[in-house]
């Protein structure tokens, strides 16, 4: 996070967190919900100011419960995730993956295909979904342990079955499995539609 943000947190540590104002869509676009109703699944308004977007990207993180947030100075703004915490994009040669915030992926520990053939990854920077336009390119770069093409094998992959695949973005082979979309947040350890953390109940004196 930016030093100025860390300084603001230290100076005003008790600023209440908020939820319902931001979402991240499946294309990696930040959306503002001016009515605070992101939990109701509305599309929101795209944020286009490049300076604001860069600030948000640099100050994006998560808590121990897997709730992702934008740290707006001293205030934490929880984010509704329409797909995953990160949207992953491929380089021209498919050997590089990068998050929507501009972080390079150094390793992939596991791959997942959901019911709609969307591709997800557990990476060293966090869980992400491969952008729809890049799925075919990323899958085409995968290879089975015997060097065969993983794309055709993945198309026939049944739920519960596992393929061991290699991809240039991974340091080693990684499992590829099919999983229902609804199971992904739990499997990857994130909260898709976070509310505010519950306040501790004070005992009566």
UniProtKB/TrEMBL annotation:
InterPro entries: DUF2944 (IPR021332). This is DUF2946 domain-containing protein.
């Amino acid at each position: 996070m930016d030093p100025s943000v860390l300084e603001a947190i230290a100076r005003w540590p008790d600023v209440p967190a908020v939820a319902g104002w931001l979402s991240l869509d499946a294309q990696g676009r930040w959306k503002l919900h001016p009515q605070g109703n992101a939990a109701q699944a509305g599309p929101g308004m795209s944020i286009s100011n490049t300076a604001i977007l860069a600030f948000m990207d640099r100050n994006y993180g998560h808590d121990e419960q897997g709730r992702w947030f934008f740290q707006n100075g001293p205030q934490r703004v929880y984010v509704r995730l329409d797909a995953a915490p990160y949207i992953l994009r491929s380089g021209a040669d498919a050997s590089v993956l990068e998050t929507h915030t501009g972080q390079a992926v150094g390793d992939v520990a596991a791959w997942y295909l959901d019911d709609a053939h969307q591709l997800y990854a557990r990476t060293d920077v966090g869980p992400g979904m491969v952008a729809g336009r890049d799925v075919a390119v990323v899958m085409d770069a995968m290879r089975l342990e015997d060097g065969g093409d993983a794309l055709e094998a993945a198309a026939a992959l049944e739920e519960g079955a596992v393929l061991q695949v290699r991809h240039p973005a991974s340091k080693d082979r990684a499992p590829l499995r099919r999983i229902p979309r609804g199971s992904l947040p739990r499997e990857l350890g994130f909260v898709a539609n976070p509310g505010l953390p519950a306040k501790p109940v004070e005992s009566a004196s």
